[in-house]
Amino acid sequence: MARPRRFSLTVSLISLVEFLSLTSASMSQQLCADGGGGGPAAGVRAGYWSPSSSRYSPVSSIDASLFTHLYYSSVSIDEASYAVAPPPADEASLLAAFSSTVKSGSPSAKTMLSIGTDEYRMDVSNAAFSRMASDRSLRGVFINSSVELARANGFDGLDLSWIFPATQMDMENLGVLLAEWRAKITEESTTNSLSEPLLLTATLYFSNHLFDMPDDNLDYPIDDISSNLNWANILTFGFHGGSNVTTVDAPLYDATSHFSVSYGVISWLDAGVPPCKLVMGIPLFGRSWFLRNKAKNGIGSPTAAAGTKQRKSNQTGIIAYAEVEEYMDSASTVVTYDSQSVAEYFYNGDLWVSFDSAQVVQKKLEFAARSQLLGYFLWTVGFDDSNSTISKQATESWHQYGQGGFGTMHAGGSNQYVAFNSSSVSSGSWYSKILSYLLSSVLLLVTLSR
Ligand SMILES: *[C@@H]1O[C@H](CO)[C@@H](O)[C@H](O)[C@H]1NC(C)=O
Ligand SMILES: *[C@@H]1O[C@H](CO)[C@@H](O)[C@H](O)[C@H]1NC(C)=O
Ligand SMILES: *[C@@H]1O[C@H](CO)[C@@H](O)[C@H](O)[C@H]1NC(C)=O
Ligand SMILES: *[C@@H]1O[C@H](CO)[C@@H](O)[C@H](O)[C@H]1NC(C)=O
Ligand SMILES: *[C@@H]1O[C@H](CO)[C@@H](O)[C@H](O)[C@H]1NC(C)=O
């Protein structure tokens, strides 16, 4: 008689497990479906385009079929009215034409208007975001103007790129801003039957905790981010701008510090953001230095200065992928792929550059797909070469590794920066909470049935 009983117990355990895992999957799908169409089945393959790149990479030259979402990056906040600032006169026509140009290249591509910190006036610009977020009526002004500007120019969504909130009060206010913004978008969509609701995303720090800030207790508001954004784009690059020794600038792994892509991704997952809300950044720029001594050209070698301004990036120490490629064609360039950190660098005479090659991009997207992330974004698409080499590599890798499908099981990760593999997945908070809940239910049932 024991046999049938055990059999039925097994069956009920299996259905319980199935029920619970279906419930948790549908809960996360529900979260991910918030805002409608926010989590496209094939994931997000996004790119940021900067109006300053229009002189060498006009919107019409982008192969939009390689992207699901293209961001106009960016307009800023008006420091007097706290509304979204209209673009400078020489960029107005670029903003107006962006959506229609992208869609004529690829009708299914969505366009996003990014509203961000003005990089040339960071302090005043961030102060304006901080002030706006702290005041209910100023938030209303900002939010209303953002929706108006997006609709007037045919955008499908909005992005907040506040780089970065600097106090705990900023973080709290950011949460309130996102909730009110989402409410406005929902309300607007009920009065606008012609269009889908606007998408809402944010461009955030690489990890959920901000390092090297005056306040060392600064974390993003996880629940407000998870429940109000269609997804978050995390800036998993640009880690070592100020370094006085050569160093890889966006390594996937770093066993000696938390400044790595894997650390950032896992920190967000551990903090509780579902992976289907997370989109990982890939830099299309490299970091350049002049070596102090040409003969010392490995990682960790002393540098004399940041590399000279290049035509495309127009910033010292930054070099576009297309410009990296020009150096790669030279016989005097020596290239090294570092498999431990998953990064590439080259030197040529006294120039030393760390960059993301096609191989690095492939490895990073394998990591992103294995972590069940929603997708990736490229920063910025104008830095790719004229064959869109990296943009194509990214799309191909995503299709290759993303084939397992999305939305059924969401892996978390342990907050250890050394390595990320399938055996460390189960110690992650989000996934492991469900798992340990399942196990304890099973144990409880077994105990009860004795
Ligand atoms: C924003 O727009 C709503 C209507 O959608 C209006 O009720 C509200 O007063 C506006 N807020 C501000 C600050 O203009
Ligand atoms: C780099 O800077 C650090 C402190 O910021 C200093 O300790 C170190 O000596 C410097 N290294 C070189 C090669 O200048
Ligand atoms: C390059 O950057 C400088 C500021 O460093 C700016 O004044 C100039 O307009 C930029 N040039 C182009 C072509 O974007
Ligand atoms: C683009 O592709 C063509 C054909 O494969 C090749 O001849 C050319 O060198 C490539 N250009 C760049 C910038 O990679
Ligand atoms: C996976 O991670 C575990 C513990 O985190 C480690 O013991 C194991 O060697 C790793 N496996 C690989 C293939 O990296």
UniProtKB/TrEMBL annotation:
GO terms for cellular component: extracellular region. It comes from Panicum hallii var. hallii. Belongs to the glycosyl hydrolase 18 family. Chitinase class V subfamily. It comes from the Eukaryota. This is GH18 domain-containing protein. Keywords: Glycoprotein, Glycosidase, Hydrolase, Signal. Residues 1-25 form the signal peptide. One of its GO terms (biological process) is carbohydrate metabolic process. One of its GO terms (molecular function) is chitinase activity. SMART domains: Glyco_18. Residues 43-401 form the GH18 domain.
